[in-house]
Each structure stands twice: as structure tokens, then as C-alpha cells.
Fold these 3 entries.
Entry 1:
Amino acid sequence: MRVVAHNAPSRLGMLALAALLLGGCQAAMIDERDEKPLGRNVALTLTNRYPVSQDPMLNDYVTRIGLVLGNVTDRPDLEVHAGALRTREVGAWAGPGGYILITEGAIGMMDDESELAGVLAHELAHAVLKHGLDAVKQESTKQEFLALMSLFKETSKYVEVAAAATDVVISKPYSRDQERAADAAGVKYLIAAGYDPNGLLKFLQKLQRTKGAAAGGQMLSTHPGLDERISNVRNLIAQAGSPGGARLKDRFVRNTAGVVKTGVN
């Protein structure tokens, strides 16, 4: 899930600054070593754009769920950093290296912990599968990107560089194959962690019902092929034997008491 960025930099500036962020290296040198720096800059950009939630109970809650899910992925060594952003906009992001952020607006649509875990599991899967890093690699092979590398070596505006560079990760849509892979891995993580995987399905269905109905200037960008993804997730759960699992509504209500609810059913 991606929220449309406000005041997003131009594509030309984005590419040039991304090149600088990665140290002016050649495309072949963009690899796993860049995961954590890119992830930190994604988090920095998002927390500059949207303030971090001032609710310590909520942030601790989101962090704990992220860590539980991180322990059952195929990359248990990945350091998961999860938190909430104080905005009514609906969004969630996965930064390379395990940086996961979700908005209070998204949490306000949920009814129980299995839904929150479902969204976090899906986003975490993008990080585990290195989809954000792959997006930067793909961008870095383009001639316009390479040509701009030599033009911006002298700038000292690192914060602006970092914010513009990570726009590749924040705003570039994932492919259908990447979304399918993240859903499949997300369902797997939920089952392994003991959650009801139907939580992810329920939240996708809510997105489907509210698509295009955002008010007050709120801009919602859903994954491409939402109908298809709902069908795929339903099939994935059935193939896993419809295992059920924890929903933890009471614990969710306690820990999200400060979040404004949207009343989506």
C-alpha cells in the first residue's frame, strides 16, 4: 500500500539525487550493502512528511507485532523497525532493511490485531524479498540515471538528497508479481506466528470498499489489481487448510484506544 506523496520531487531530481545517495557508484555496485542506508532514509523521509505517533503505547504495540513477525520470516537476522505515523491518511510502507511504517489512518480502519498483523506481514514481506532494493537497482540501470551521476557530486544538501532518493522506494508501485509474492509470504508469516491470516483478507476487503471514497484531501493509493489480490489471498488461506488463529480484538482495542476509528465494516 502506498500513499501518494505530497510535494514529490521531479523525476529528474529524484534520479540525480538517488545516484548521489548511493555514493555515485555504478549500477553493479548497488547491492545488499545499501539495504540499511536506504531503509533509514525511507524512514527519515516518511517521518519528516508525517509526524511519528505521539502515543507510546501504540508505537510499542506496532513494534512488538513487527518483531514477532520478523522472527518467523526467511530472514530472521533482518532487524525489524516498525512504528506508527500520526496522519488520518491510509498507508503503510516497507523500507529496505526491515523498516516498516503504518499510519494511524490505516489502523483506524481495523477491528483486531490480526488485521494489523496482516498489513505489517505484507509490508515486511516486501522488505524480506528485497523489493524496495530491487526497485532502486532497476532505476539505476537507466541511462538518465547514469548520466546524472557526474552532475551532482558537489552538493552538500544531504537531507534533501536522502528524501528525494528514497522516493523511488516510497512511491514507485510494486509489480503484480511482487504483490502476489508479498501476499503469499505475508500469509505464511501470519500462520507461522499464530495469527488468523484472514486478518489480511479482511483489511484488503475494507480497502476495496473504501477505494476512491477518501475525504478531506486524503489521497489513497491501493495496490494494483485489488480484486485479484483478494481472490489470491482467499485461495492461499484455503490452500493452507484455513488454519484460523489469534485475532486478539481485546488487546487491539486496549492498545489503539487513542486512534480515531473510521467505522469501516
Entry 2:
Amino acid sequence: MYLQEKNVWNKSHSVFSDPRFFSRTSRKSLNIVGIMIALMLPWLVFTATFALTSFWMRFSRPVLADSLMGIVFAGFVLAPMILMANGAKKKIADPQSYQPTWYIFLSICCLLAFIFGYLVGEHNYRGFMHPYYSLMHLAHYSNVDTNVAVGQQIMDAGRVTFKNTTALDLGHSMGFKNSDVFCVAPIITKASLDGRSITELPSVDFWAVGTNCCSGVQADFHCKGFADPNANGAIRLMGDQEAARALYRLAVQQAEATYKLTATHPLFFEWVHDAEESTWEFAQDGYIGFISAICTYFVVQIFFTIVAMLAFSKMVDGA
């Protein structure tokens, strides 16, 4: 009986003392943790980088936003790369004891997440959020009469709501061709003309603009909002459109020469149904783009993680 109990103890002791037993259980638990980290960490890096690149902090506190991005890069991109490098050293030093880890996968995924988060966030910022923040930062003028107000008085305008009788004067529109066609049309409050032609106004300073929406050889302006009879709002040119300001100015100069107009301080706007509504659309597109991007990236990261799991399982089984 004593000998049987001793044999049982020796067998059980030999099982628990076998290092392969502990390596299997620990590897199993570490794999679960590794899978969760490999799934969530790159996605969080993408989300944080996208948010820091795209939203209000970038506009109002750019230095702080850049500093936080540096922390994200150092803490969640460089750190996995250092762990990957240490793993590579161990493999070189002792190839027999080396086991595949998540570090190489994690470092690559975090680096890609940071790069794509920055690129997509930059696109979202330039296309939507920067115009929105800029318009909200500028002044909003209401009930503007274009025959009374002049451009110099509202040079800080971002959003303008004109009087209800204000419309585009398509008959005095013009286009300037420089690869693209840069189109302009006067914004005129008709009720206060008092029978006068716009050629008799001291200065025609409010212009609706658009690109490639007129022929450039005749008055045929058909840019955004031109056919809306209830439109009486305008938003200032923002974002990439600001680079076209000089070309719109040349189109106005052509209109001055052709129609004998005077435009002392021309301001360029996008003609819209409602200035507040159109401004908010920039923010909506930016927020929707952010949510869509982080959801899409999460699905992509799930796919990459599953592929890595299958690859690592084959490597372990093969070993």
C-alpha cells in the first residue's frame, strides 16, 4: 500500500514538475490576453490618432494635440516595437527555446493604425472639421442688404443671411478659365435697387462662386443653389477653396470690365439655402466620417487578428 501511494505521488509530482505542463497553461492564458491586446490596442491607437488629428483640439490647441500624438506614438507604437526587437534578440541567442509571440504582429498593427489614423484624420479635418470650426469662429451677419452694406464692413463674415428679396443676378455672371472654370455671380438684394441697375451701385461686393459650373464664355452660372428660389444664405470660402480666391478675383475683374461694374472689396461665398444649416452639415459629415472610420477599422482589425491567430497556432503546432 505504501509503495502504491509512493508511486502515485512520484507520477503526479513528475507531471507537475514537467516544464511543458506550465508552458502549455501559461501560453494558453497569455494567448488569450495577447489576442485581446492585439485586437483592441491598434484600434485604440487608430481612434486616438484620428480624434487628435481631426477635432477641436487640433484647431484650438495644436501644440497640445501634437504632444498627445507624440505620447500615443511613443507609448503604443514604439513600445511594442521594442518588445519585438527583444524577442528577435532572444530568437537569435537561443532559437530552440524561442516561441512565437504577438509582439511582432502588435508592433506592425499599431504602426499601421497610427499612420492610417493620421491620414484619415487629416482628410476629415481638412475636408469637414476645419471649415466648420473656421466658420463658427468667424462672425455671423443677419438680414444683410447688399445694396447698403459693403464688403469692407463685414470682412470677418463666415456666415451671412441676406434679406429675403436677395437673389443671384445670373445675367451678370462670369467665368475665368484656368484649367478649371472659376465662376462668379453677383448677390443682389432686389427690393432695395429702387429701379436701378447693378451697374449704378457704388460697389458690388458680394459674389456667389463655384468651380466648373459655367461655360466661361457667357452668363450661364449654374453652381450650387442657383435654382433655389428660397435661398438667402451664404458661407465663406473655406478649406481648399481658399486657394482659388485669386482666380475668383480675376473672374470678378472680367465681370467688371464686361458689365461696367465696380467691386472694391469683393467677398466670395457659397450660395446656400440656409447658412446655419449648411455650416452644421460640415460637422455632421465629419462626425459621421469618424464613426464610420473607427467601426470599419475595428472590423479590419478583427480580420487581421483572426489571421494572426491561425498563423501562430500552426507555428506552435509545427514546433
Entry 3:
Amino acid sequence: MRTLDIPGIFKADAETILKCREDAIRIHGTNIRAAGDEVEICVRDYLTRMLPPRYYVSQGHLIDRVGNVSAQMDIIISDNFNLPSLQTTKDGTRYIPIDSVYAVAEIKSTYYKSKNPIAEFSDSIKDIRENLIHEEILNTAYEGLKDDTSLRDIVLEKANRVLNRIFFFAIFVDGGDFAFEDVASYYSSRDLRHLPNVVVILNKGVIIRAAFIDEKLSFNRYPEEAKQNEDWYFSPFPGVEVGSLEGNHLGFLYYMLVEHLANSHLEPPSLKGYLQKLMVGRKSLLKRANAT
């Protein structure tokens, strides 16, 4: 019986992304922005291909029901079945209702220490969490049945404590001058809610919140739900004579993302809430058909 070489598949996918970076640098040279755009498109295309049709992969801004708008995000994964985009401009930039969002990502072709990219992304996460309205949907069946457990959550059987939590991740295709020692103190001092859930540096390793138990790392997808004995770790996944370093890191990201999506649930957003400013009239302007 033939077996599927899963590590080999992720190795080939990672090589495609690496080649996108190399081709972009060859074509655009010192135009870092243009080269970065090429890499972003390549990663978005990869995620679009890998994720089921219910997920809409795009780029743009998050917007809440009162009109607050986030900074530009390289990747936004939203609910393709319920209002995946509120507005798309002529240049392809989308305004995505935050209530439709599963995940947000930052994509960089190369890690440059001087640009503090993780701190910059962390600031964007803080801005979204603190300045955009996004009410949590709690899983009332989390860790077992209780007096207030709803039938919805029993049927859903999701493992997440918060059903609509946004998953933040970053991908650096090339590690450049990255060294974990340079960011370790930042991770130790920053509010857990404002840090990426996972950072993947394809040719070097991943940064993840975890606990070291029985000589193994137990990963926590949601840093803000800090558990005992957890800390931030940087780890390469060289594998055991399978795949490749880059492919294994890409596969790990895919695993973390799919686990998040599978255990999330979004309620359909109310379009009325987003458009309520349009639907304000004046009594003096009303005309009634049967007025006497």
C-alpha cells in the first residue's frame, strides 16, 4: 500500500514559498516593499489552497460595528459563509468585520532586527484588542457541563474557552539576523494578550508559549490563558530524517492554525450594526402614504 509523505508535502510547500522570496528579490532588487508584497501573495495563496472553503483568506483592515478601523493586516482569515468582507476598494484592500475574523497574520520576507518586527506586530495586536469592539463568546460547555451550559455549546463540542478568539501569528520566510536572545526580554515583559500566539521563522524555528513537561513541550495556543509552569520558548523542529527544517515549521503552523479554526465558532455578524449610521433619518423628512 502506498503511503503519503506528509513531511515531504510540507517541505515542497515551504520550498515554493522560499522560491517566491528569491524570485521577488531577483525581480525587485532593493525595493523591499514590492518584494514583500510578492511574498505576502504567495503565502495567502498557500493558505487559500490549504484551508477549507468556509475560510476566506485576504488582506486589509479590521473594522468594528461603530466604524473603528485597524492598521493594514497582511493576512486576515474570515468566515466565508457570513459577511467575509464589508467593503473592497479598487486596489483590492478589504475592510473585514471583526466579528467575522478567525485569524490575523503579519508576513515578512526577511527578519531584520533593526526594524523590531515582532514588537511592531505586537503593537498592532494591542491596538486591535484595546480599540476595536469585539465581545467574547464564551464556551459554556468548556471543561464540562454546568448549570449555565447552553445547548448550542453542547452540540458544538468545541475545546476553546472563548469561541471567537482571534489567533495572531507571524511568518518570517528568512530569519535574517534573528536571535531569540534579542527578543526574550521583550517577551518576558509584554502583556500576554498583546503578543502573537505563534511566530514562525521558516529557516530557523518557532516562538511559542509552552510548558516543559516530562521532557516534552506542551504547547498553549492562547498565551493569555497562561497556565502553571509555562514560558516562552524558541524551538527548531529538525525532524528525524524527514521533511526539512522549513517544511516542518510550516507544518507546525498549519497544525496550530487548523486546531484553532476547528475549535472556534463565530456567530453571523449583524450587518445592521455595521451600517446603522447610514440608517438614521429625521422625523421632519418622513412622508407617509396615508397621511391626512
